């Protein structure tokens, strides 16, 4: 089963947020790693380059 998570991050002083379905079995470090991977995918799809700060993730 999957849960939807709102993932938030800051890039170049702008906060971005999106919703992504994540596997319910992911917890702790595995969940954070999966969220970071989704942020990298989002940034690539939206032509955002450089560093980011993961600011939040929550079930929605």
Automatic annotation (TrEMBL):
From which domain of life does this come?
Bacteria
Put simply, this protein is called Uncharacterized protein
**Species this chain originates from:** Bacteroides intestinalis
